[in-house]
């Protein structure tokens, strides 16, 4: 019975794919292709290296954008978490800027940076910055007050207090923020490529659609799904591992 | 005091913008002056921009409502049966991280470059947070409440409306809030790609024509839509969930 349990998640997608295969084999169209054709197209993409190149571009720019967002978000978040006054004074600015949808900055980033890596990194960084900032701020607020008292007794300066006491104490929560950031960064990176940037997986998919190659388009769609699932699962595993290592409840 | 400081800091940011654009720190091609942005905003709201704002807001709200209705209904159907949960949930969790905008090319291939296509993608993309929140909310109904419902011989429909949905409501509302953000984002991207009238198309055209002040006016309006819809929703959320806190 164990192997039956293992198999269960795969049954529903397998049935769906089988139905799609049968139906789409019978009537070919410019819009859709049977899964077997998409798989064949996928093998072609792997063979000619375009899969690796596009995936590397998308993941690379998502990672760079997330790095920028993390550096800025964590440093400002620690500041706002430690000082009630700083948090209260910046509240209006944060509340006014945060709801701007990240995709609204695509045309602006296009104007400033042109097409390429930098515009995508800029939009990803803006999108991932806000959750990193707010979650870091909340994490710092929840640091045990006794630890802050210790830092006062040791007469640590503000710099030492942040680096030696506060940051280590909120590492598990920071990784929760990072997990959310990873999910946002990948979604925004693909969105930027679909909307404007002529690079990466999103653009490859748009081009496949525009050149009426549904098999290739579906191959990219499936691959984007697999990459998104794998990256998110990896981030979750990392966060849980850190949480266990640091002795916090997962 | 803090309220005042908050306003002062925001004012300082606007001042920094004024200085940066007037002092020529950043080229006016990228960064218009605050006055120019305001003028574009004022002029635009008397002209096209008002219609675009309404179009984008309407698209966002329609997609969001559709997503919420379908998401809650499907979620309740799947959530009420442990068997359906066991068979379907892994697939749903697999689709969740897929960027909604990645479905745009597929939707264009199927439905063409139309307003209906954009609406379909908005609704589909915004449905996931609500759907999964509803399923999880149903799965988390206290086992003792389930026993009570069995003792009272509640029918399935009665269980859904009297125990399942109220129990899942906090999760559903949190999911709906997330899906409102997704709706706005996908609406804007859809307008950019499919050239449907709206703020997404407006800011893309403004950027292509190097009209930075109109671009900024569009960004300001999109920020306002996001801000207002979020504020309204969290207000509603607090009212609806008042029964939970003693």
Short recap of the structure:
The complex is a heterodimer of chains A (250) and B (246). Chain A is mostly helical and 250 residues long.
The CATH C-level class name of chain A: Mainly Alpha
Number of structural domains of chain A? 1
CATH architecture descriptor name of chain A: Orthogonal Bundle
Q: Tell me the structural class of chain A.
A: mainly alpha
Major sheet characteristics of chain A: none
Task: Calculate the mean pLDDT score of chain A and round it.
Answer: 90
How many domains of chain B, as an integer? 2
CATH class of the largest domain in chain B: Mainly Alpha
In the CATH hierarchy, the third-tier topology of the largest domain in chain B is known as MetI-like fold
Q: CATH topology of chain A, anyone?
A: MetI-like fold
Mean pLDDT of chain B: 89
Largest sheet of chain B: none
The fraction of residues assigned to DSSP E strands of chain B is under 5%
Helix content of chain A: over 70%
Show the helix and strand layout.
The complex is a heterodimer of chains A (250) and B (246).
Chain A: H1 2-26, H2 35-47, H3 50-82, H4 84-97, H5 105-113, H6 117-141, H7 145-153, H8 158-169, H9 171-195, H10 200-210, H11 214-245
Chain B: H1 2-22, H2 34-46, H3 48-79, H4 82-95, H5 104-111, H6 115-139, H7 143-151, H8 156-194, H9 199-208, H10 212-240
Helix pairs in contact in B: 2-3, 2-10, 3-6, 3-8, 4-6, 5-6, 6-8, 8-9, 8-10, 9-10
Question: Could you explain the architecture of this structure?
Answer:
The complex is a heterodimer of chains A (250) and B (246). Chain A has one domain (55-245): MetI-like fold (Orthogonal Bundle), CATH 1.10.3720. Chain A is built from eleven helices and no strands. Chain A has helices at 2-26, 35-47, 50-82, 84-97, 105-113, 117-141, 145-153, 158-169, 171-195, 200-210, 214-245. The radius of gyration of chain A is 23 Å and the shape is elongated. The two termini of chain A are 30 Å apart. Chain B folds into two domains: 1-31; 32-240, MetI-like (MetI-like fold, Orthogonal Bundle). In chain B, helix 2 (34-46) packs across helix 3 and helix 3 (48-79) packs antiparallel against helix 8. The two termini of chain B are 31 Å apart. Chains A and B meet through helix 1, helix 4, helix 5, helix 9 and helix 10 of A and helix 1, helix 4, helix 5, helix 8 and helix 9 of B.
């Amino acid at each position: 019975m164990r192997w039956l349990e293992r198999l269960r998640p795969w049954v529903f997608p397998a049935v769906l794919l089988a139905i799609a295969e049968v139906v789409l084999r019978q009537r070919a169209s410019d819009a859709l292709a049977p899964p077997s054709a998409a798989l064949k197209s996928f093998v072609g993409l792997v063979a000619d290296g375009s899969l690796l190149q596009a995936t590397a571009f998308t993941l690379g720019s998502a990672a760079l954008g997330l790095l920028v967002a993390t550096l800025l978000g964590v440093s400002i978040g620690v500041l706002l978490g430690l000082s009630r006054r700083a948090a209260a004074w910046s509240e209006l600015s944060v509340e006014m800027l945060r709801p701007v949808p990240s995709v609204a900055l695509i045309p602006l980033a296009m104007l400033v940076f042109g097409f390429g890596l930098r515009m995508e990194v800029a939009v990803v960084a803006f999108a991932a910055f806000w959750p990193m900032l707010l979650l870091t701020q909340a994490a710092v607020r929840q640091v045990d007050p006794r630890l802050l008292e210790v830092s006062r007794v040791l007469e640590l300066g503000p710099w030492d207090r942040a680096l030696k006491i506060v940051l280590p104490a909120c590492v598990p929560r920071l990784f929760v923020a990072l997990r959310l950031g990873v999910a946002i960064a990948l979604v925004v990176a693909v969105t930027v490529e679909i909307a404007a940037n002529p690079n990466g997986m999103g653009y490859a998919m748009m081009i496949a659609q525009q050149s009426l190659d549904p098999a290739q388009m579906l191959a990219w769609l499936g691959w984007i799904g697999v990459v998104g699932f794998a990256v998110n699962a990896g981030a979750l595993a990392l966060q849980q591992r850190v949480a266990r290592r640091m002795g916090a409840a997962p | 005091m803090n309220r005042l400081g908050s306003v002062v800091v925001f004012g300082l940011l606007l001042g920094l913008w004024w200085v940066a654009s007037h002092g020529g720190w950043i080229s006016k091609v990228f960064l218009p002056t605050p006055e120019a942005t305001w003028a574009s905003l004022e002029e635009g709201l008397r002209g096209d921009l008002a219609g675009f704002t309404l179009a984008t807001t309407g698209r966002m709200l329609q997609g969001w409502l559709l997503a919420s209705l379908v998401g809650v209904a499907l979620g309740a159907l799947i959530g009420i049966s442990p068997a359906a949960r066991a068979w379907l949930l892994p697939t749903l969790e697999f689709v969740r991280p897929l960027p909604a905008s990645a479905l745009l090319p597929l939707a264009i291939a199927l439905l063409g470059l139309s307003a209906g296509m954009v609406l379909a993608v908005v609704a589909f993309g915004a449905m996931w947070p609500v759907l999964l929140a509803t399923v999880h909310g149903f799965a988390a109904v206290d086992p003792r409440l389930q026993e009570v419902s069995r003792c009272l011989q509640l029918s399935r429909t009665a269980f859904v409306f009297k125990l399942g949905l109220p129990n899942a409501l906090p999760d559903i509302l949190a999911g709906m809030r997330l899906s409102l953000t997704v709706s706005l984002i996908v609406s804007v991207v859809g307008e950019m790609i499919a050239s449907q009238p709206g703020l997404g198309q407006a800011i893309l055209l403004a950027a292509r024509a190097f009209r930075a002040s109109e671009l900024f006016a569009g960004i300001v309006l999109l920020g306002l839509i996001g801000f207002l819809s979020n504020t309204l929703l969290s207000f509603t959320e607090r009212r609806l969930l008042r029964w939970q806190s003693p």
